Amino acid sequence: MAVIKKKTWPELFGEIVAGRKTFYLRINDFEIADGDTLVLEEWDPKTKLYTGRTIEKKVGYVFKFKPEGLTFNDPKEVKEKGLQIISLL
User: Fold this and answer.
1) CA 44, CA 11: separation in Å to the nearest integer?
2) Of 29, 33, 61, 81, which has the maximum CB count within 10 A?
């Protein structure tokens, strides 16, 4: 099982820490699989620095897809790489 580190914005980080957000939607630009550990590192886009807060979550299930017509992220990147929904346990 792999350990994958990714930065995340404070609003999303807070929702995950509070237990309200149990999934993670990201561009499919990295390998991740069921059973891996996702280490989320809080990143402040205003200061462009990591805050030092981290949380580790075990990945329960990864669902990858390439939806057409989405209006967030770069449409070229979404079309090329697709998206993935990551269930957090």
Assistant:
1) 10
2) 81
